[in-house]
Amino acid sequence: MKSFLPLNIRIDNKKILFVGGGKIALHKIKTVEQYTRNITIISPEIQDELHQMGFSEIYKEYETSDLQGFFLVYACTNILEVNRRIKDDAAELGIMVNVVDNRELSDFISPAVIKKDEMTIAVSSNGQNVKKSVEWRNRLQAMIQNGNF
Q1: Range 68-79 average pLDDT
Q2: CA dist., res. 25 & res. 53, Å (int)
């Protein structure tokens, strides 16, 4: 069984790559953009809402050389073989990868997050129950908004 250590990683001046330009990438980017704008998206197609966010965009199919210079990578395609290839390529280069929706292939997972000013609360189920993590996050967020925290 995979086990994930909760930690905060320093990402200032670090480049983060998202391979994939659809709903899954959009969801993950909405969390990551709270901490950095140093995001690049590589995909043959990038959905409108994601395009309007103003990140660096490269319209093409993934190639191994695309990983050069990146600190973290999110594999967000809807093709398991491509995500697995991204993971394997990154492992050879010593780059950590989150294969979205596949904890078994991931070096790290993203928790459900609440961020307000300098404070962050992260809720994780070790990648086993995403819905429950989101539910807990939402309950904590409601408590904070209602002044019960």
Answers
A1: 97
A2: 12
